[in-house]
Amino acid sequence: MDAAFTEEQEEIRRALRELLRKRCGPDEVKAAARTPAGHDAALWRLLAQSLGLPGLALPTAYGGAGCGPTELVLACEETGQALLPSPLLGTAVLTAPLVEALGTDAQRRALLPRLAAGEPAALAAPPAALALTGPNTGDWAGGGRAGGVQARRTDGLWRLYGQADQVLGGPGAGLLLVAAHTGGYARSGIRLFLVPGDAKGLVRRRLTALDETRPQARVELRDVPAEPLGGEEAGDPRTTLARTGVLAAAALAAEAVGAASRALAGTVEYVGVREQFGRPVGSFQAVKHRLADLYVQVQAARSAAYYAAWAVGSPPEQAPDAAVAAPLALAQGLDALRAASGQAVQLHGGIGFTWEHHAHLYVKRAASDELLFGPVHALRAHAAGRAGLFTTAATTMTSTTTTTRGRAAA
What we know:
Its cofactor is FAD. This is Acyl-CoA dehydrogenase. Residues 250-381 form the Acyl-CoA dehydrogenase/oxidase C-terminal domain. Belongs to the acyl-CoA dehydrogenase family. GO terms for molecular function: acyl-CoA dehydrogenase activity; flavin adenine dinucleotide binding. This protein is an alpha+beta fold. It folds into 3 domains: 7-120, Butyryl-Coa Dehydrogenase, subunit A, domain 1; 124-228, Butyryl-CoA Dehydrogenase, subunit A, domain 2 (Beta Barrel); 238-395, Up-down Bundle (Butyryl-CoA Dehydrogenase, subunit A, domain 3), CATH 1.20.140. Helix content is 53%, strand content 15%. The chain contains 13 helices and 9 strands. Strands 1, 2, 3, 4, 5, 6 and 7 form a 7-stranded mixed sheet that branches. Helix 4 (69-82) packs antiparallel against helix 8, helix 5 (88-102) packs antiparallel against helix 6 (105-116) and helix 7 (238-273) packs antiparallel against helix 11 (359-373). The chain starts with 6 loop residues before the first helix and ends with a helix.
């Protein structure tokens, strides 16, 4: 495919890259990730006010930049290169699209301008809700000490109780979008509810996560008042959650490619100056071959991520395979990031194996993303199922077997 970008897309990428290079080095990343909110609030405000990053894919009527999902995904490649700790994933990729798709007119007018202006938000639902590795038709809202999150209607008001774990961006979110059971266990359904970050009875506990740049929280709801997204007549959100999962897969794929390319570039630079036996390590043929193979792998993952970015931003009649392309791109991006980060540790030698070296930031991102949104083989298997490959293969095999048996009988 022709991955030529428009002038506007190139300008978005260039401006974001320049800003992050100045403000988001490895030391700044570690410091920001260890703040209570899990990100640099001043840098996030700058990204929101100067570049309109959280509102990139939102309409101008709601205070957004009026671009689209493609531009948002391409921006994620730049944030991935810097391993930017930010509420971007929870706010712009997960929460804002759901509010725009399912919210009432009043909810969209009230919430989307706030999100576009940079108010952090988080989706309190397990990764299974995004339907990346399997259908989200099961009872994925369960778990926790209270069986997940339950919603009950009392005196005309909805109230939530229960617990949601591993809420990405949960520590600093000013708005939570919570998935909860309704109707009791016998007739249980799932709905999404809006909960302000300062709601009475809401308790958030930051979790110790493998990847500090993706802060996670345990959200406990103790009879918390909530507003149903879409109003009282809202239907089951699982189809829309699956569509949001496609956007999330494309964004995460671009992030992984950005991180992999930065890890590779840092390794190439290091082996060019690190000497062993009187010559640069990078001059050895074995090292050249390893880096060349890695370069090819990263470039292939980049092509897949760009295709997914185009697919999620195109009308369904032009790109009907976005639900297949995005998870496959994510799988390939995670593979490339795992390989690039592993080689970065090895080719940096003794210093690369020290826990404090910045190469471990990429190792942790690779492992954490696969644990949260994978594993890779499950992403590929579910995408193949969506594409009908298993059904086609099974039908072909059955037809071949029947024909063979008929000939044998004859």
